Amino acid sequence: MVVKLxxxxxxxxxxQILLDADDARLARPLHHARHDDRGKDAxxxxxxxxxxxxxxxxxxxxxESGAGNGxxxxxxxxxxxxxxxxxxxxxxxxxxxxxxxxxxxxxxxCKTGQGVDHSKAMSTSPAPQNLSLAARDLAVxxxxxxxxxxxxxxxxxxxxxxxxxWLHATDGRRYLDAVSSWWTNVLGHRxxxxxxxxKDQLDRLDHIMLAGMTHExxxxxxxxxxxxAPAGLSRVFYADNGSSAVEVALKMSFHYWRNQGQPxxxxxxxxxxxxxxETIGALxxxxxxxxxxxxxxxxxxxxxxxxxxxxxxxxxxSARDHAARRLLDMRALLQRHAHEVAAIIIEPLxxxxxxMRMHHADYVRGLRALCDEFAVHxxxxxxxxxxxRTGTLFACEQAAITPDFLCLSKGLTGGTLPLSAVLxxxxxxxxxxxxxxxxxxxxxxxxxxGNALACRAALETLAIFNEQPVLASNQVxxxxxxxxxxxxxxxxxxxxxxxxxxxAAVELVRDRRTREEFPAAERRGLRVYLHGLERGVILRxxxxxxxxxxxxxxxxxxxDLMVDAAIEGIExxxx
Length: 575
Ligand SMILES: Cc1ncc(COP(=O)(O)O)c(C=O)c1O
Prior knowledge:
By secondary structure, the chain is an alpha/beta fold. The chain has 19 helices and 17 strands. Helix content is about 35%, strand content about 10%.
């Protein structure tokens, strides 16, 4: 069910947290995380005048120097000469450390590097033990979905341990993982049952290729997935991440039609605002400009259908009516294009990366009917919304439909290991089943397909859903989350507060009456993110959409903490 607390006119959205290195607010040193109840207090209340190593390296020290001026701290890490020195110089750790302090206190790394014997250094490997983890990281790791330059002023969080909903950093602080580590960690970090299963599995079998061989976890997992998935799905094809699963579904659908003597079905219908991953095929059916625009020349062009996103409906139009209207658009597209279309791909109920945009289950139901009528496949990408996120184990259940392809990943392993699965039906499988010489086989493979450890983690995850009242307790948690967020419904800079199960989102705008957006360049979401860090909460807004997608082990008190942090962050962000 889409809970619409506020409704006005349309807005576009930018994906990813927008990090603003020039924002004066970033100049404020981050204070230490504060926590309400559990475990040790993460506040660093040392009174010494020196920065802790973690503070210095992360640029988060609360002293006069540090990242606050946007000049010290990290800048030298991005100077190629300095980076080279970090890698090559014998004793580089100490030199770098000196450079870091120099940077933090207005000095210059180049000066502190003088006098080092580089010729000697060339023959020795780096000895980075004395560097903080964050500093070592910034010298060598290129992070996903990140403008690395941003980390000249924004701390790189170095996490050494995770438990339940909490991430523990090397500097003693801890952070509530309000976004389940990119939506993967549905049951909380290091769930004891999954950990025990993995340890047991490691003692038996780690990994084998899945061609010509099989193993117990792969078979049991396929059996269990078929048991819990919508009726009619009877075959499981494994891959190893979400994008790969989407590639599999697209190729399999196209290939099905080809094997059926319809090679002209080469196109796909995708929804505006949809996101299906970032490999070339998955990105082709993605409609989020931030990711797609640059690579457009490399991508194939889907037929784009307008999204049933309730936020985009006319003023006064219900989510259900908007869904009905968008189904008419889809019908018109199919009337023109069905003969050349292999499949329609959708994120059922919630378009997540596109801004946590939600639609009525009627749309998914209607889409299934249209696919049947026009004989095209339906691909349900439940990579983000599967495993209880929307209130049911799979989102398709709320529309009472079975897709032709169901793509699963993320929560499949409880967020412990990469794995994905594409479930399909007997009819699709049969279209590939023939003498080898017929050339009908699906010759698609990934080295880690059906990895035994990942399959075991997935089996334990399913066992937890089966044996514990996860979905029932989520109802209590999601009701609490919705109640707390209602406080934002009338906020002058909030155009929409929406929720589907354990996903809730707040749409920030400059003016709620007109839905005028904040320009993306202002990076308002970043301010919320930074305030979250101060409060010890990982919020990672999608542009101007602040959202909550916590692990299901979160308590109501922890929900209060993340909502309080977000509300405060929003106040600062819109000021
Ligand atoms: C709906 C959806 N599909 C596909 C993907 C891609 O998954 P991965 O990042 O594992 O490639 C994502 C990732 O966020 C997603 O949300």
